Amino acid sequence: MTLTRDFKLTVVERVKRDPAFAQALLDEAATLFLNGEPETARLILRDLVNATIGFERLATLTAKPSKSLHRMLSPAGNPSMDNLAAIFLAIRERLNVNFEAHSVAA
Questions:
Q1: Per-run averaged pLDDT (10 residues), the chain, 106 residues
Q2: Which of 50, 79, 82, 96 could disulfide-link to 72, CB 3.0 to 4.6 Å?
């Protein structure tokens, strides 16, 4: 059997060397939340936190315990809108990006 790289490690390394990839992941997480796919969005945010600021720094920035943040960003997590906004803000500031919302005609 061929050895493969751990997917999460691959994501972390790519985020660190490719800012456009990191921004695309953040955009995708926001889009997934807005389109009713919060489980996948939380997992992407979790990977971004691990690849950028880490949960300990996020805990400091959001004034929330690290373990609570881990639970919020798990597949079964249920972060409040305030907590979710704080997580997005911390990642956005770390990546130095902004969001722009656009409506699309159906």
A1: 70 90 93 93 94 95 95 92 93 86 68
A2: 79
Taking residue 49's Cβ as centre, other Cβ atoms within 10 Å add up to 20
d(C-alpha 91, C-alpha 87), whole Å? 6
Q: Are 15 and 22 in contact (CB under 8 A)?
A: yes
pTM of the model: 0.84
Measured CA to CA, the distance from residue 31 to residue 29 in angstroms comes to 5
CA dist list (Å): 29 to 4, 39, 81: 26, 10, 14
- What is the C-alpha to C-alpha distance for residues 83 and 69, in angstroms, rounded to an integer? 9
- State residue 12's pLDDT score: 85
Q: Cα–Cα distance between 105 and 94 in angstroms, integer? A: 32
Using the structure block, give the residue that is written with the tokens 């969001």.
Answer: 99
C-beta of residue 83 within 8 angstroms of C-beta of residue 59: no
Q: For 1, which DSSP code? A: -
